[in-house]
Recover the amino acids of this structure.
């Protein structure tokens, strides 16, 4: 089919299938290159009405090009990585931890021995050493009948010092011998205070049973 425009109107002219296909292919190719406008260009190029071209395109199953710009698909949102679980902070006090009678007695003995040697402060030092609450230490001391740092407990410790047998120092009396004697004395004090605490606890228990 010639692409030359006819001089006369093409109204009533019957086109062959080959001619129709040529016009349809032209419109489709134009739309593929330019996005739209193939229908009107084909009508002008081949001297047919735009309605005729539209009808042929529709009959051939060619959809009319959309005037709306196709939006690019949105990028998928980044999924946030799950937060890592924080490790539990180590607490200074071991609340909820159950202690054995031996562990409690160890804390009590330490407190009593510290107070015997320094006068007071055993409660706070025991709390720091064994990583427990000062209130817990105080409760254990109270349960054992021991008042941490009181004049009465210190007086008992001094009395135990007097009755304790001191190790004999060597004749030379040098610094090392004196230091060894002091350490042995402190050991005796700790032992005496521990025994005293046990006796007081037994006394209080017997008293409470009356």
């Amino acid at each position: 089919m010639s692409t030359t425009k006819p001089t006369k109107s093409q109204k009533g002219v019957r086109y062959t299938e080959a001619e129709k296909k040529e016009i349809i292919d032209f419109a489709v190719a134009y739309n593929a290159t330019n996005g739209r406008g193939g229908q009107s260009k084909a009508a002008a190029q081949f001297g047919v009405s735009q309605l005729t071209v539209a009808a042929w395109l529709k009959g051939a199953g060619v959809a009319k090009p959309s005037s709306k710009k196709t939006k690019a698909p949105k990028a998928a949102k980044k999924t946030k990585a799950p937060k890592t679980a924080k490790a539990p902070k180590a607490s200074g006090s071991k609340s909820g931890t159950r202690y054995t009678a031996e562990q409690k007695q160890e804390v009590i003995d330490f407190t009593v021995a510290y107070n015997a040697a320094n006068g007071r402060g055993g409660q706070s030092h025991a709390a720091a050493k064994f990583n427990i609450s000062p209130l817990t230490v105080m409760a254990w001391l109270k349960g054992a009948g021991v008042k941490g740092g009181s004049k009465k407990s210190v007086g008992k410790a001094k009395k135990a010092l007097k009755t304790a047998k001191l190790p004999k120092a060597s004749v030379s009396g040098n610094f090392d011998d004196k230091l060894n004697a002091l350490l042995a004395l402190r050991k005796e004090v700790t032992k005496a205070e521990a025994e005293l605490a046990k006796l007081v606890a037994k006394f209080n228990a017997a008293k409470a049973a009356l």
The longest helix spans residues 175-209.
